[in-house]
Amino acid sequence: MQALLTISAGIDRLNQAVGRAVYWLVLLAVVISSGNAMVRYTLNMSSNAWLEVQWYLFSAIFLLCSGYTLLRNEHIRIDIIAGRFSRRTQVWLDVVGIVLFLMPMAVMILWLSWPMFKLSFATGEMSSNAGGLVRWPAKVLVPAGFLLLTLQGLSELIKRIAFLAGAIDDFGPQGGGHAPRETKPIAKAEGL
Amino acid sequence: MVEFLIANMAPIMFGALVFFLLFGYPVAFALAANGIVFGLIGIELGLLTPALFQALPERIFGIMANDTLLAVPFFTFMGLILERSGMAEDLLDTIGQLFGPLRGGLAYAVIFVGALLAATTGVVAASVISMGLISLPIMLRYGYDPRIATGAIAASGTLAQIIPPSLVLIVMADQLGRSVGDMYEGALIPGLVLTSLYAGYIFLVSIVRPSAVPALPPEARTLRGLKLLYRVAFSLVPPLVLIFLVLGTIFLGIATPTEGGAMGAAGALLLAIVNRRLDLSLLKQAMDSTAKLSSFVMFILVGSTVFGLVFRGVNGDLWVEHLLTGLPGGVIGFLIVVNLMVFFLAFFLDFFELAFIIVPLLGPVAEKLGIDLIWFGVLLGVNMQTSFMHPPFGFALFYLRSVAPGADYIDKFTGKRIAKITTGQIYWGAVPFVLIQVIMVGLVIAFPQMVTGSLHESTIDPADIKIELPPMPYTPGGTDPFGAPPPIGAPGGSSGAFAPPPPVFK
User: Fold this and answer.
1) What ipTM did this prediction achieve?
2) What is the CA radius of gyration of chain A?
């Protein structure tokens, strides 16, 4: 169990680091997109490459941060019923969810999207827009994002099993969903 | 058994989705897993070809390249910066001081700030929580009736749903295949009407029960004369100008919503720098929240894409269409059923789930029935907003509960003992606002011009606006609700003033 928990802690650190690095892209995207807009009004110019950078960045943000978001337990859930269960039951439900929902989905998309990247990389696929960007850096984001998500799923699974087995007392943020801000309200059902 | 499965694949799939969602695992993954499980069953039964899943990576790539949704992180970031840097709080405080001498002044401030900060949220939670934290203690301190105070906060928190530049409208436009600019324009007047209805209610209370909404006592009005003017100039005007610039350029078609959002985000950053409110931890917090919000929103979309791919594969879209077009009463029946359905679903689904799961199923049917999709989107928006503040399930009420005082406390300024807020007070406080919402849903249905008017100004013939036209505004003169839809660009929904009766919720 201890070895597994070490792996889990390693994955948590990895996704934490990725999340904290990737969120700087938000600022970069703001700067580039507002720059694009200014250039378009003032100089009446626009470049497809710079326009495409916008959605490359956005894709990088949401795909690469998916594992980090899972680590922070901020993927929205509907806790109207589940929120009434005991902590242990909720953790059990999470284990089932990870095994039946998250892992098969993430692994499958990871597995399906790899060839899309490989093909794009091998053929040196370019954007269909004039002056657009080379495509593989965008396409590699899909398998990369789902890999991080799969890893984080594994880590969450380990933590929950360890909790159920009594090996650890607690782990990460709970409840979750519906409050993507720092001011976390208590879970919906606990509120009343 | 197998035949039964094959024949009823779509309903079973939908039922399983509801079950999976209630099970409490993150929506994005439950959706995707549901799609995959049923996809595999479908392939096993020969309903689907194994090649189906091969389309998935390209679908996900399509989501990445979607221009409309790019605006989501920008508006979120702009809102976070405005809020976290304390500019939103200043705004509330300044408007509170401005309206202070007036009865109900604080409540007006809450409503207007709620409307102005619409940009900040796609998720009801955030605005209700921040307004609740900032203004509830002040309102209680100066003797507001807790019911009025909580009602105003919960209601204004949900205003963010419907007033441009809301994220909700961006997503709605994307899912309905309409332009965001049109959606904003369509929602503007209903949003303003709604805001005035709220303010009107407070005004009414201030006449009927003045003690429930007292004016600020003179000692609490710390700012007067020049000092107040200074505050207005420096904390009220700049964010307002920013919001209006962003909205204005989008409305006028000068900027795309993505550009507007990016400029708005840059503007908010500049304002925070000028006000010396920006520091590294604030910036990091805002980027962190924006990244996580983008991720969970987009993953719901990814999940619903997987679900949708399979659901369409087993002809789920046709099933929904048959179900909805076969309703008695044609278009009116459709609108009533859809509105009731969305209303009840919104008790346990937040906006993004609804928009990505339900709206794509409803949109095509509505279009086939000749319903103007902008109008439809705005109607659904107002409807969901109603649901979010409807006791006992409304999200806004839960979030308000979580930040409202649960025990008596001593106010630190006046030293007075302030009674806790009971859940019953929050519920009763919401009731008048829910009634206003129901009226608003009725108004949107009865006067579609409110939405479509600004979009199709040139095509409205005043002669057309008569009460005695057939009850289906989009098929002028026609009696067959399934007849050919009007040509694109026709004044869908704007030619007839009369309309189906508002659905009665209760």
Assistant:
1) 0.88
2) 20
User: What is the rounded radius of gyration, in angstroms, for the C-alpha atoms of chain B?
Assistant: 24
Q: Are B108 and B338 in contact (CB under 8 A)?
A: no
Q: How many CA atoms lie within 13 A of B318 on its CB side?
A: 8
Tokens representing B284 are 């990091």
Task: Spell out the SS3 assignment of chain A.
Answer: CHHHHHHHHHHHHHHHHHHHHHCHHHHHHHHHHHHHHHHHHHCCCCCHHHHHHHHHHHHHHHHHCHHHHHHCCCCCCCHHHHCCCCHHHHHHHHHHHHHHHHHHHHHHHHHHHHHHHHHHHHHCCECCCCCCCECHHHHCHHHHHHHHHHHHHHHHHHHHHHHHCCCCCCCCCCCCCCCCCCCCCCCHHHHC
Whether the pLDDT of residue B361 is over 90: the answer is: no
> How do residues A35-74 score in pLDDT, each as one tens digit?
988 888 888 777 888 889 999 999 999 999 999 999 988 8
The structure's pTM equals: 0.78
Query: Which of B25, B53, B77 shows the shortest C-beta gap to A97?
Result: B25
Task: Judge contact between A16 and A71, C-beta under 8 A.
Answer: yes
Q: CA of B101, closest CA in chain A: separation in Å?
A: 32
More confident residue, B272 or B99: B272
B positions 333-392 inside 8 Å of A (CB): 347-350, 352-353, 392
**pLDDT single digits (tens) A77-110:** 776 677 778 888 888 989 999 999 999 999 999 9
Check B401 against A23: CB less than 8 A apart.
no
